[in-house]
């Protein structure tokens, strides 16, 4: 692995950036119990996964609002204000990404992310993402991690052999998906641990 690995392929949410729907909805729902109930029972992460898979927000929001008409105004905010669900970079990750880039190691990403919601976030964070050679967005491809097909598509687009690309994700199932196509991969816990992994692979000194 040390001899071949020459690029880093990142996940985005909960590896580079802190994603939490509470960041938005705590501004819209004053009562903590009501907030917890809305995110647990109405606008759930399982519901949101449809956007990552490519379903239009207009469809998913209409369905959910029909099932929960009392929450229609809150559901309607999910798409237009999705960027407000994304906080800053996780501790140490901005410096680490810049260090990797400065070391001449190519940066890529494979993210489960709505194709509708991605462009404004990408624009907001252009200073970071302009350092990346390419980013595969699941909602644009109608493929999601951990389906092996999205990793194969990404490797083909990136022009990388599987063994050349270290994949970093916070979810074990996504890491296993990458490993199933031959990519070395690690589960992200924090920037310090990841940096040690990169040093062990010879990508950083």
Would you mind describing this structure in some detail?
The protein has helices at residues 22-25, 32-41, 45-52, 57-67, 72-78, 93-102, 118-124, 126-129, 138-141, 148-158, 172-180, 191-200, and strands at residues 7-10, 17-19, 86-89, 107-111, 134-137, 165-169, 185-187. It has 205 residues and is an alpha/beta fold. Strands 5-4-1-6-7 form a 5-stranded parallel sheet, with helices on both faces. Strands 2-3 form a two-stranded antiparallel ribbon. Helix 4 (57-67) runs antiparallel to helix 5. The radius of gyration is 18 Å and the shape is globular. The two termini are 16 Å apart. 32% of the residues are buried. The model has no long low-confidence stretch (mean pLDDT 97).
Counting helices, strands and paired strands, the structural category is: alpha/beta
Backbone shape: globular
What order do the strands of the largest sheet run in, or round the barrel if closed? 5-4-1-6-7
Could you name the ranges where pLDDT drops below 50 across 5 or more consecutive residues?
none
Relative helix content: 40-55%
Largest sheet: 5 strands, parallel
Question: From the alpha-carbon coordinates, what is the Rg to the nearest angstrom?
Answer: 18 Å
Order of helices and strands: EEHHHHHEHEHHEHHEHEH
- What separation lies between the terminal Cα atoms? 16 Å
Mean residue pLDDT: 97
Number of strands: 7
Strand residue percentage:
5-15%
Number of helices: 12
């Amino acid at each position: 692995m040390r001899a071949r690995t020459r690029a880093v392929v990142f996940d985005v949410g909960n590896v580079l950036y802190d994603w939490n729907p509470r960041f938005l909805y705590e501004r819209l729902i004053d009562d903590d119990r009501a907030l917890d109930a809305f995110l647990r029972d109405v606008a759930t992460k399982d519901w949101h996964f449809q956007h990552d898979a490519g379903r239009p927000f207009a469809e998913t929001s209409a369905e959910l609002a029909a099932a929960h008409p009392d929450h229609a105004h809150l559901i309607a905010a999910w798409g237009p204000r999705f960027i407000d669900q994304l906080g800053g970079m996780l501790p140490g990750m901005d410096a680490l990404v810049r260090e990797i880039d400065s070391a001449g190691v190519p940066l890529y990403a494979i993210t489960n992310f709505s194709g509708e919601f991605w462009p404004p976030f990408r624009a907001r964070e252009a200073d970071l993402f302009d350092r990346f050679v390419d980013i595969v967005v699941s909602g644009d491809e109608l493929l999601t991690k951990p389906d092996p097909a999205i990793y194969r598509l990404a490797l083909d687009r990136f022009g990388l052999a599987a063994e050349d690309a270290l994949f970093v994700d916070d979810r074990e199932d996504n890491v296993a998906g990458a490993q199933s196509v031959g990519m070395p991969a690690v589960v992200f816990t924090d920037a310090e641990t990841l940096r040690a992994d990169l040093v062990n692979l010879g990508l950083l000194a």
